[in-house]
């Protein structure tokens, strides 16, 4: 009996546990909170990630460890890796935790990135704005997610407001200034690399964000072969440079035909949730296969899929369940503003069929605005 340890017990761990059940896997989740939503499907150890006694017990009870949460302290990941196999490796995790290290790596690998500058003091901000140009975005280097820890700078006059918002965090999490990319589209590539180095990538996915949070994903993206090849090439270079094992995502901006890298997620990714129903093998199943050294599953799409995120609270399920290609995922979380509480995936054989399904669901749920950009892309 193989037990997979997961650091972090959110919806990603929950969906991993569900995907691992047919493989006969057991799971153990380490999370610092009592109400982790993976706990419904996996035994839990509730402790701080820095608690060495808890890490020791965790290591003793598992065969391999992986992550649902990328911000596990790097020292904890390293401690664990000294006692049990950990995938992805702690160095890959550390690079992906820090926007500066991540962008520096992308640049070394000749992957296009926005202009960027690291900042430690208020004095450095003005010079950085002058160098990067406006508009630009001040971001925390570490611990940001769902657009938190970001301040958009339209002109140099916004520097004081930006510093007031994020300056107090500079010493703790670091700051980076990034040029604003006037992208035409946002895309992501979700890929998996096995222990033997084999790399597979699902088709490019197009993503729409609202208030910095993923709202909808369409896969396969309406994109030509050359874009797909550019994305796969970038994913391969990153994965090989980090000796990465498992699933990861690269978030990309499409700007004048070029894919500019925004960030990487060293884990299964929200823009890959459609693979549960929309691909031969889901990102969750392939992540488990990768970390266990099993053969990887095929990543080919099955039809056309759109994933809709439910943020804050769950809508009623009936309209999605009534669709022939409708699939519902309720993470079992209590409602809270800005919280990802579930998602739906609509799948159809044709793009026209998917657009029709989105139109029906958008109307039934009063979420026309959420589905509109996807329908516009499909028609
Ligand atoms: P996630 O939940 O994806 O980890 P995050 O907090 O790490 O989010 P980012 O991915 O950096 O945040 O930014 C969130 C969104 O804000 C992006 O998907 C994009 O829509 C927009 N954005 C971020 N950086 C830039 C940029 N340099 N130029 C243009 N838009 C940007
Ligand atoms: Mg991020
Ligand atoms: Mg992001």
Automatic annotation (TrEMBL):
According to the lineage, what is the superkingdom?
Bacteria
Keyword Transcription regulation applies: no
Q: Which GO terms describe its molecular function?
A: 5-(carboxyamino)imidazole ribonucleotide synthase activity; ATP binding; metal ion binding; phosphoribosylaminoimidazole carboxylase activity
| Enzyme class, UniProt record, top EC level | ligase
Record keywords, A-Z: ATP-binding, Ligase, Nucleotide-binding, Purine biosynthesis
Keyword Ligase attributed: yes
Q: What HAMAP family does the record point to?
A: PurK (MF_01928)
Q: What is this protein called?
A: N5-carboxyaminoimidazole ribonucleotide synthase
Please report the organism this UniProt entry assigns to the protein: Arenimonas caeni
Q: Which gene encodes it?
A: purK
């Amino acid at each position: 009996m193989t037990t997979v340890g997961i650091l972090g017990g959110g919806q990603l761990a929950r969906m991993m546990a569900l995907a691992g059940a047919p493989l006969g896997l057991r799971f153990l989740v380490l999370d610092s909170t009592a109400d982790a939503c993976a706990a419904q499907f996996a035994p839990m150890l509730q402790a701080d990630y820095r608690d060495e006694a808890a890490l020791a017990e965790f290591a003793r009870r598992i065969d391999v460890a992986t992550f649902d949460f990328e911000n596990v302290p790097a020292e904890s990941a390293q401690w664990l890796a000294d006692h049990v196999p950990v995938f992805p490796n702690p160095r890959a995790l550390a690079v992906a935790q820090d926007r500066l290290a991540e962008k520096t790596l992308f640049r070394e690998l000749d992957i296009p990135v926005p202009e960027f500058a690291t900042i430690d003091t208020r004095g450095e901000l003005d010079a950085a704005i002058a160098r990067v140009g406006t508009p630009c975005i001040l971001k925390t280097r570490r611990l940001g997610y769902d657009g938190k820890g970001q301040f958009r700078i339209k002109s140099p006059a916004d520097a004081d407001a930006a510093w007031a918002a994020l300056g107090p965090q500079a010493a703790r999490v670091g700051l980076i200034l990034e040029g604003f990319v006037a992208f035409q589209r946002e895309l992501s590539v979700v890929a998996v690399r096995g222990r033997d180095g084999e790399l597979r990538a699902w088709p490019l996915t197009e993503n729409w964000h609202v208030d910095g949070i993923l709202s909808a994903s369409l896969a396969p993206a309406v994109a030509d072969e050359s874009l797909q090849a550019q994305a796969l090439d970038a994913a391969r270079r990153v994965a090989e440079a980090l000796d990465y094992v498992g699933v990861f995502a690269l978030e990309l901006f499409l700007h004048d035909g070029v894919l500019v890298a925004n960030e990487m997620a060293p884990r299964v990714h929200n823009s890959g949730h459609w693979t549960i129903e929309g691909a031969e093998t889901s990102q969750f199943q392939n992540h488990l296969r990768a970390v266990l050294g099993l053969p990887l599953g095929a990543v080919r799409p099955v039809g056309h899929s759109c994933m809709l995120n439910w943020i804050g609270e769950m809508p009623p399920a009936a309209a999605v369940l009534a669709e022939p290609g409708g699939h519902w995922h309720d993470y079992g979380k209590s409602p809270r503003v800005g919280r990802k509480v579930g998602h739906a995936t609509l799948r159809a054989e044709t793009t026209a069929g998917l657009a029709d399904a989105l139109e029906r669901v958008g109307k039934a749920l009063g979420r026309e605005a959420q589905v509109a950009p996807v329908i516009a892309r499909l028609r």
